[in-house]
Amino acid sequence: MTSRLTERKTRNRLDKIARKLVQTGFLLLFLYPFAPVIYKHFTQETAPTFSSWLLLWDPLLLFGQVLKRDWQVMVIGAPLVLLATSFVFGRGFCGWVCPLGTVLDLVSSLAFWRKVKKGKLTTRRNITRRNLWLRYYLLAMIIAGSFLSLHFLGLLDPLVIFSRTATSLVLNIFSLQNPGSRMYLSFFSLIFIAIVGLEFWQPRFWCRSLCPLGALISLVSRWSVFNREVSTACSSCGECVRACPMRAIPREPHNTDYSDCTFCLECAGSCPQDGISFKFGTLAGKRWQKKEVNAGSSLIERRKGKYIPSEGKLPVANVSRRQLLNGVAAGVVGWAVIPLNRLAPHRTLIRPPGALPEDEFLMTCILCQECVRVCPTGGLKPTFMEGGLAGIGTPQLLPRQGGCSINPSCPNLCAKVCPVGAILPISKDQLKVGLARVDHSLCLAWDQGVKCLVCVEACLNNAAQAYQGRVTVNPKNCTGCGRCESGCPVVGSAIRVYPLDYL
Amino acid sequence: MGRITRRNFLIKVAGTLTALEMVKTFNWLPGMVQPVSASALPAVAASIGTDEDSAESILRTALDALGGISRFVKPGQTVAIKPNATWAYPPGTASSTDPALLKAMIKIVQEAGAGKIIVMDHCSIEPGAAESLRINGLAKAVKESGVDSLFIDRFSGPKHLYTQIELSEGKAFQKLSVIKAAIEADVRINMAVAKSHSVTRMTMCLKHMMGFLEVPGSLHAYLSQGIADLNTKSAIKADLHILEALRVRLPLGDYRVCAGPETEKTNPKVVKRMNEIVAGIDPVLIDAYGCVNYYQIKPKELAHLKLAADAGAGDLDVDQAISNGNLQVVKVGEIKPTPTIEQANSEIKITATQIPTKAGPPPTATPLPTLPAEQNQNILLPETNTNANSCADVVNPNSLLSGALIPVAAIIAGAGVVTLRRKAKNEKKHEEENKDDQPVD
């Protein structure tokens, strides 16, 4: 008996290590598209550019786009696979694959006050299953809002949050030249920092109570084929209930809420009787049901209750009227909040080439920073407050940092990586994002008669021309690519690109 | 050591300073190796080849006329070679240094026994260093030669790669930030290409030194004076200048660019094959020779050239240099070139060209120019070269996965449904068989 017990203990420990390895593996896999940036930084050599490997699996983005009907840019296959896998393995994605979940698990190990001493049981007390419905309300809000705008979807989607934070970290360290834009990038990583902060309060609080993607997966994972089995060895000590970071085990240890369970195997490790296992199969498929105990039953029965296998029906969530109304209210709020985007005053900015019209762009961009990451000249930078509140985090072209190089060489990278089609592919002749203007009081050629003419040298369209030693811009030829501005030797640049409708 | 008195201190300081001064000017000892005097060997040598001659043979001829590479590179020294790697146009367009020439140069320096060779330059922002090097073929040349390289993206080089130097004789610039590795090298070799330029009219050795700067554009405020300052005595001064005129990029009316997709075949008016290389220690003389021979203009007309000569960076008078043997013109194949004056004169064709009048006085009140309606009508503009420089395309699995994964999703979900149904059935049967089965004992 004891040998079998130790054997299972070892197996549990191995399972835990295996999960950590799988999680780290996926984390590294999703971070791989950032590797070329780092590689370029150190070797100065060509490296291929990858689009995100993570965002295309996002079913939440798929749902948002279905409502927005941007069919031509939708990726259907990958998110459907994720949902199908959730049907079989429940929220296994959240426990084993999701990079944000992995980061939270890594951070969670820093919470020393939650550490359990050897030989002692879990320290966690006051286990409640409150707040679990918040995520469905958030989901309702986001989905309803998606009819008009993907803005809040981008703010709250965990995969987008992760991708955005990773981009800001990697670019801050390895690729930015202008320290001024560091703040821009870090600012909206605050959501990420807040999520990590919540982790110190309650383990996996975000995943359990707030994550809208988790909520979406929960809708499917309720019927998870993979199962948690509690054997008859269970003494109802409640240790697994307290160990579960997702609080997927209700008061009855035999029951499992598969809309929450991420199959993280924490409960199996915590069980003093080693009565918990995870598997497919007949017995695993049983969902136990507590029965009323009659007065004439044995003492043990009366103390622990009586269990029978459930009817084998697919469990259906009990949605109370209150919860339903809450969800509807959240949806209405989501819908109602979106037009605030339009109210926010914004100055027009130079958007990436091929970006949708400004209003529509603000509604579609999910702030994932993919275009910022791949821009070969580094000219695309996230906006801070220049575009008003609604514009925070949207990409803009800052020619001083680097012009748009779609004309000679860039194969329209920003349009190709955009996961929602906020930037559409254009040909190089269609480029027209702004108009360069010379500040005569700053320009060396105008003000000092110096034959500087760096802008003339940089211009590929014969728009900046030297005429009698001065620089003039031919508005017909100028595409606003900003190569002139990026090269100007005057501090702050004497030739600047302005948006087309700027007066 | 005794007490430090004021007297002791002053004596020691004076002694140290004297010693340092003596070490600094290290030719006071009898029998010291004196630097090769300019009279013994020419300062500049121009070698003229034919279409059949390789870049290497032309280069070797020029260097031999100068007294061999050993005059510049001693065994064990660190050598910084600065080719023109700025532009992303393929070889043959006279936009960047010819890869074959760079390889030959590296080979020659290696033969001289150099301890370490670093090839360095700043690349244009567009499309970035790596891509530029791939297109102009220099990345391959450097890789095949197996030497170190330091090609920095313009504006985005890490700060630690640069250091500040002082130009004691500089008029417009006294301090400049340059590539650190170039300063640390014992020998600097400046390999320029003879090209036209929109601002300075011509780009040759003097202007090419700007590639060592952290922000090459920074000189543009006082460009001509800045170039002259850069070539005065300083830590960055190059020991050997090489002007590549295998192909020369000529100005064509208003079309004066320092790089473009034209070749000698597509636009012979812009790119001309010359098969010449000018090498030497006097950049001003090299540039002056280039002006006279390739562009048919008087050296004095180039403002930066004149300013550099005024600052004492070199000699502007080509005729005089040839007559006193300071500039030798040799043909490939001539083993010991000792050209007479008549011979040299017959090589050089100076043609008086009509020189456009200089721009008016510096503007005080700036009149708005009226643009002519159509410019550059009669000029062959370069055809757009779309294939030559394309950035690496994005690796995007989206389109591929989208279709393929739908059936996969269907299969997984279908398998799930089947398992679930079967399970439910089994459980029902199971339950009927043992109705009293209880998990809790």
Question: What layout of secondary structure does this protein have?
Answer:
The complex is a heterodimer of chains A (503) and B (441).
Chain A: H1 2-31, H2 35-43, E1 49-50, H3 59-68, H4 77-89, H5 92-97, H6 99-108, H7 134-145, H8 151-156, H9 158-174, H10 180-187, H11 190-201, H12 205-210, H13 212-221, E2 227-230, H14 239-243, H15 266-270, E3 276-279, H16 282-285, E4 288-291, H17 299-304, E5 306-309, H18 321-337, H19 340-343, H20 358-364, H21 370-374, E6 380-382, E7 395-397, H22 413-417, E8 434-438, H23 444-447, H24 454-458, E9 464-467, E10 470-473, H25 483-487, E11 495-499
Antiparallel strand pairs in A: 2-3, 4-5, 6-7, 8-11, 9-10
Helix pairs in contact in A: 4-13, 6-11, 7-13, 7-18
Chain B: H1 6-24, E1 44-48, H2 55-66, E2 78-82, H3 99-111, E3 116-123, H4 129-136, H5 138-145, E4 148-153, E5 162-166, E6 175-179, H6 180-184, E7 187-193, E8 195-197, E9 201-203, H7 205-208, H8 223-230, E10 240-249, E11 271-280, H9 283-295, H10 303-310, H11 318-323, E12 327-331, H12 341-347, E13 394-395, H13 398-433
Parallel strand pairs in B: 1-12, 2-3, 2-7, 3-4, 7-10
Antiparallel strand pairs in B: 1-11, 5-6, 8-9, 10-11
Helix pairs in contact in B: 2-3, 3-5, 8-10
Task: Specify the number of helices of chain B.
Answer: 13
What's the average pLDDT of chain A? 81
Number of strands of chain A: 11
Side by side, the strands of the main sheet of chain B go 4-3-2-7-10-11-1-12
Computed structural class of chain A: mainly alpha
The gross shape of chain A turns out to be: elongated
Specify the helix fraction band of chain B.
25-40%
Largest sheet of chain A: 2 strands, antiparallel
